[in-house]
Amino acid sequence: MKDERVFKRIKELKILKKLQQEFLLILVSLIDDNQFLENKHTFQTIDVDHSGNIDKSELKKAFYHLLQERFEDSEFDELVDRLDFDKNGQISYSEFLSCTLAKKHLDRPNLRNLFLHLDIFGCGYLTKESLVMSFRRRGRTL
Question: Over 70: is that where the pLDDT of 1 sits?
Answer without folding.
Answer: no
